[in-house]
């Protein structure tokens, strides 16, 4: 069923549009605002405040002031805030899903899945907070005891992208709240509403003023730069592109900040002759077409062994060709628009370039519609080595397929990449599955599955995909320091 315009207006009117600083929603110092656009239509949905560096400094003031009391708050109380936030997000899942769809474009069914995934971080870290522990031991040489304790890192800066505007927020906010850290969050300018709605829910769940501060801005470099130079800031956690990540790592070196860098991906997707081809097609659809291919985990390069190449490509082409593209609020839509015109032109240019170099389109291969930023779900075969469709992260619904003969060749192709976030492989052979999983230069592997994200698992990459892990038992460690106390024994 399609969502009515009245319901859209009703949900949008409930989202705060100010900056959240020290528990107050306020206007930006210079009164400027940023328009938030619906990528399905290009229409302006609403506008939010456009923070200056002075506003961001005020947010850090608030986070720093709230730090000591929040660090002393018992873990059980921090956990209860997160658990209440989980319940509130779950109760308001439909509204939050609509907000995501309106500002980002993905179909409602995918937005609901993002809300459920994002909420799980609140629940998972509510369970982790009371389990923060240290160690006790005797010094091996005698004469002393070794105690270690975990303490919150301190005020954190969180920078999030537009592609999962709610879940990329909870993946950072929840472990920081659990660990006893305070934070300034800067969401992506294109999709600030999901984070603002989440911040309002965190307040309602009982998070004290100043623990979570939010600044929306159209000038991220100018606003973030001074924060990175401020000695009160102790950690930067960033999810976004590798080039921006590199700049932030350089900037944060002055204060030697603790860093978590969740950067770009260029995931290989390997299908071996001994795979369940039907399952591989399903896996490829999930790994490639979810979020219209705008995911760091998106399968970006599909390598298929010759023996199953025709069957796999036929199955994939059929499924891709039957996808319903449209505005995410309409019933039955499976693929939404790309986030903006620049993103769509970039995808189109890469496909056109590959075609000029000898690749052929099996299905799709063109921009769609007279409004919004739609691109047809696409399958391209015979993509030549070195094509940007294979070497760069393509944030769009385009599956480039390459045929291989030997396992070693597939592994070499998969690892011949700057990034190393996730790799997928389909095989019914246990030994091959584990052998290839061990050989892939990635932080995560999907073995016979096209989806790896799980709040209970450590999400993160190697190589140019960054460092640090979000989720799992590892996730809270990113927000904790280890202190060692030597105790003399006489
Ligand atoms: P992006 O351009 O790097 O932006 C990410 C965030 O950084 C946004 O909030 C952006 O603000 C901000 N930003 C941009 N320039 C900045 C600067 N000079 N200083 C401080 N902040 C700055 O990335 P994106 O296009 O939004 O997101 C897509 C990328 O994120 C892809 O590469 C994808 O693979 C990656 N990603 C990675 C993961 C992961 O877990 N590894 C998850 C999701 C996405 P504005 O909105 O104002 O530009």
Provide an overview of this structure.
This protein has 490 residues and is an alpha/beta fold. 39% of the residues lie in helices and 22% in strands. The protein has 15 helices and 24 strands. A 7-stranded mixed beta sheet has the order 14-17-18-13-12-20-21, with helices on both faces. The mean pLDDT is 98. The structure holds NADP nicotinamide-adenine-dinucleotide phosphate. Residues 159-164, 168, 186, 188-190, 220-221, 224, 239-241, 244, 247-248, 262-265, 296, 393, 421, 461, 465 line the site of NADP nicotinamide-adenine-dinucleotide phosphate (NAP).
Pick out the low-confidence regions: none
Largest beta sheet: what is the strand line-up?
Answer: 14-17-18-13-12-20-21
Structural shape: globular
* β-strand number: 24
Largest beta-sheet details: 7 strands, mixed
Rg over alpha carbons: 23 Å
Distance between termini? 75 Å
Strand content: 15-25%
Arithmetic mean pLDDT: 98
Question: Could you give a quick summary of the protein structure above?
Answer:
Helix content is 39%, strand content 22%.
SSE diagram, text form:
Layout: H1 5-13, E1 19-21, E2 24-26, E3 33-37, E4 44-49, H2 53-72, H3 75-91, H4 93-104, H5 108-128, E5 135-138, E6 144-152, E7 156-159, H6 167-179, E8 183-186, H7 193-204, E9 212-214, H8 220-229, E10 235-239, H9 242-252, E11 258-262, E12 267-271, H10 277-289, E13 299-305, H11 306-321, H12 341-356, E14 360-363, E15 367-368, E16 374-375, E17 378-381, H13 388-391, E18 398-404, H14 407-415, E19 419-420, E20 422-426, H15 430-439, E21 444-447, E22 462-463, E23 466-467, E24 480-488
Parallel strand pairs: 7-8, 7-10, 8-9, 10-11, 12-13, 12-20, 13-18, 17-18, 20-21
Antiparallel strand pairs: 1-2, 3-4, 5-6, 6-24, 11-23, 14-17, 15-16, 19-22
Helix pairs in contact: 2-8, 3-5, 3-6, 3-7, 4-5, 5-6, 10-11
């Amino acid at each position: 069923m399609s969502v009515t315009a009245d319901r859209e207006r009703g949900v949008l009117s409930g989202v705060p549009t100010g900056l959240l600083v020290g528990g107050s929603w306020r206007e930006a110092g210079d009164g400027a605002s940023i328009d938030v656009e619906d990528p399905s239509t290009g229409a302006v949905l609403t506008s939010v405040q456009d923070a200056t560096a002075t506003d961001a400094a005020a947010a850090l003031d608030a986070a720093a002031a709230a730090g000591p009391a929040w660090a002393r708050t018992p873990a059980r109380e921090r956990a209860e805030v997160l658990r209440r936030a989980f319940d509130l997000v779950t109760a308001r899942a439909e509204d939050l899903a609509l907000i995501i769809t309106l500002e980002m474009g993905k179909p409602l069914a995918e937005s609901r899945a993002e809300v459920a995934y994002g909420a799980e971080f609140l629940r998972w870290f509510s369970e982790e907070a009371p389990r923060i522990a240290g160690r006790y031991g005797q010094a091996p040489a005698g004469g002393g005891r070794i105690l270690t304790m975990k303490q919150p890192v301190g005020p954190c800066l969180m920078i999030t992208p537009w592609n999962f505007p709610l879940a990329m927020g909870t993946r950072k906010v929840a472990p920081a709240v659990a660990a006893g850290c305070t934070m300034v969050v800067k969401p992506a300018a294109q999709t600030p509403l999901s984070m603002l709605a989440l911040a309002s829910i965190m307040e309602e769940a009982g998070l004290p003023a100043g623990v979570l501060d939010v600044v929306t801005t159209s000038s991220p470099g100018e606003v973030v730069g001074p924060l990175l130079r401020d000695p009160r800031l102790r950690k930067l956690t960033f999810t976004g592109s590798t080039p921006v990540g590199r700049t932030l790592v350089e900037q944060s070196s002055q204060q030697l900040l603790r860093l978590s860098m969740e950067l770009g991906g260029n995931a290989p997707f390997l299908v071996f002759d001994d795979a369940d081809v039907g399952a591989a097609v399903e896996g490829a659809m999930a790994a490639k077409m979810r979020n219209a291919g705008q995911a760091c985990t998106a399968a970006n390069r599909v390598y298929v062994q010759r023996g199953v190449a025709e069957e796999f490509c036929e199955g994939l082409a059929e499924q891709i060709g039957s996808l319903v593209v449209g505005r995410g609020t309409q019933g039955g839509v499976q693929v939404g628009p790309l986030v903006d015109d620049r993103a769509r032109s970039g995808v189109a240019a890469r496909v056109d370039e590959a075609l000029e170099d000898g690749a052929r389109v099996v299905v799709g291969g063109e921009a769609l519609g007279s409004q919004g930023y739609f691109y047809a779900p696409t399958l391209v075969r015979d993509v030549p080595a070195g094509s940007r469709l294979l070497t760069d992260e393509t944030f769009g619904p385009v599956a480039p397929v390459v045929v291989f003969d030997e396992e070693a060749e597939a592994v070499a192709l998969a690892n011949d990449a700057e990034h190393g976030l996730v790799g997928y492989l389909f095989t019914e052979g246990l030994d091959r599955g584990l052998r290839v999983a061990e050989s892939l230069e990635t932080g995560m592997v999907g073995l016979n599955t096209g989806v790896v994200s799980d709040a209970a698992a450590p999400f993160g990459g190697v190589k140019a995909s960054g460092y640090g892990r979000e989720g799992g038992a590892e996730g809270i460690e990113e927000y904790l320091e280890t202190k060692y106390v030597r105790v003399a024994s006489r």
